[in-house]
Amino acid sequence: MGKRRVTLITAVWKRHDLTGLVLNRFRNIKAELADMIDLELIAVGSEGDKSQQLCENHGFAYVEHDNMPLNRKYNAASRLAQESNPDAVYRIDSDDWITSDAITNSLTKIDEGYLAVGLLDLYFLDLPSFRLGRWPGYGFFNNTKRMWAWRNRGKTVGVGRCFSRELMDELGWEIWDQEQELSKWLDTNCDERLKERGHKIKGFTMQQLQTFAMDIKGGGENITTQTFSNLRIKWVKDAKSELYQHFPKEEVDSLIQLSQSIN
Fold it and tell me: Taking every annotated instance into account, which residue ranges of this chain make up the domain Glycosyltransferase 2-like (predicted)?
C-alpha cells in the first residue's frame, strides 16, 4: 500500500495570534507524518486577504466564504477536500491542538471498518489563566446539567473528527446540512446528518488513540464567561510541564507568551 492521504479541514475567524499558533501546529503535524501520510491542509476564512495570507503562510490551501452561517462556511472546506482525493477527512477547529497520533490512529480505526471516528474526552486550556484540565466527556457525572449529559452520553466531542472517504462520498462531501443556517451546534447537526443515514461516529478516548487533544479557550471574543461553568473538569497541577510532555517546547513557549500578552 502506498502513502495514505488525509485532508485536514479547519475554519478561521479573527483571533489571529492564536490561529497562527494552531495553524503552525497543523503544519508541524504534516511534517511529522510526511513519511507515512500525505496530509493536505485546507482552511476556510472570511476576512479576505488577511485570513488568506495567514492561512497560506502556514501552508494551507484557502477558500473564502461568508462567516455565517457556519455550516455553509465549513462545507466550503469540506467540498474542497474532495479535490485532494483523500482516504479520510479530518475536521478540527482553529483553536484546537492535537498530536500527530490523533490522525494516524484515527486512520487506523477507519481502516478497521469504522466510517467515522472521534474523541470521547479532551483537555481544555483556559488561555488567560493558563489552567489546563481534562474533561471526561459527555456523561452523568461529568456535567452539572446531568440530564442533558445523560442524553448525550457516548457522544464524541467536536475536537478532531475523522471521516472515511466512503462516508464522505455518501454525504456528497458536505459534512453539515447545507439547507440550514446555523450559528452554533455544528457537532449536533453533523451527528444528526449521520444518524439519518444509519451511521454514528465511533468514539475513543485520548488514551485509546494515544493522543493529546486540547481545546484552547480565551483567545478571542467568541468565548463566553460560562465556558467551563457546566463542566466537571479535573485541573492539572502544572499545565506547562504537562504540555511540554506532548508538544515541542518552542510551540508551548509561544502559547505561554500569548497567554501573558492578553493579561
Answer: 40-165
Domain count, the chain: 1
CATH number of the domain at 83, please: 3.90.550.10
Would you say residue 63 has pLDDT above 70? yes
3-class secondary structure per residue, the chain: CCCEEEEEEEECCCCHHHHHHHHHHHHHHHHHCCCCEEEEEEEEECCCHHHHHHHHCCCCEEEECCCCCHHHHHHHHHHHHHHHCCCEEEECCCCEEECCHHHHHHHHHHHCCCCEEEECCEEEEECCCCEEEEECCCCCCCECCHHHHHHCCCCCCCCCEEEEHHHHHHCCCCCCCCCCCCCCCHHHHHHHHHHCCCCCCEEECCCCCCCCEEEEECCCCCCCCCCCCCECCEECCCHHHHHHCCCCHHHHHHHHHHHHHCC
pLDDT at position 196 over 60: yes
pTM above 0.90, yes or no: yes
Average pLDDT of the residues in 105-128: 97
Predicted confidence at residue 134, as pLDDT, reads: 94
State the average pLDDT over residues 197-222: 90
